[in-house]
Amino acid sequence: MTNSLFEAVVHATRVLTKYGLTVEELAAVVEQNDMSDAEVLAVSKVFDCLLTKQEISTVNFMLRTSRLPMKVPKTFDNFDFSRITGKNVERLRSLPTLSALYARKNLAFIGRPGTGKTHLAQAFGRACCEHGFRTCFIKMTELRDRMTSARRTGRESSLLAYLVRPACLIIDEVGHCEFDKENTRLFFDMVDRRYQKDGYSNMVFTSNRDPAQWKENFSENDALLCALDRIIDEAAIQTAGRELPQEKAGYSFYTTGKVKAVELLADRQK
Q: I need a labelling partner for 198 at 20 to 30 A (CA). Which of 36, 59, 85, 167 fits?
């Protein structure tokens, strides 16, 4: 068997495993049909085409169901990284590797309006979709309204399943609305279930408020502080501000510990 044919067979085998066909079964098919090298190569190309189509179909499905903007998508390619200043810019540039998702590390983009928080969050979500990971983008106000509606119609379990299922859940504009006690319970029930799920998973938040202030938007209870601790624990907090003379967004990258560490960080930035 020539090297090119061997490589083609190896590649075809990788493709076929996605369809439940083993190496032994492939070899048996080749032997039973007395296939020539050219025929094996042709079959390999067919399977390669099938795999490519399947991957494209999967990505398109992930994007359609993600609720991310489709007409004018936010991507890392169309984000102006030249606007960013700061000594840790390279860490922002590493976001497309999805290392935060693989490490189950939450992301939070904090800063004033117009600093690119939502763009980066949506770009991260789109990259997740392109790698075959289910993603969901939702604004905090809509999340509150959906929770209120679910409680009234008895569909809490269905909503929680919808929010827990995605590998990447993006919540935009945290701190823009108040959550009553029941919605607070639902929100942190969702957080807890996401932490209990298997596989790659993370949450991405955007806000113009420091994470230490997020608790002001939820009804106080003991579970709240514990859940906030979980959200921020070892999260990658990226703060964005404006350097007024240059009108540039300045990003700083921090890996925090517990909520108290974030509060101290906020104090240093005031």
A: 59
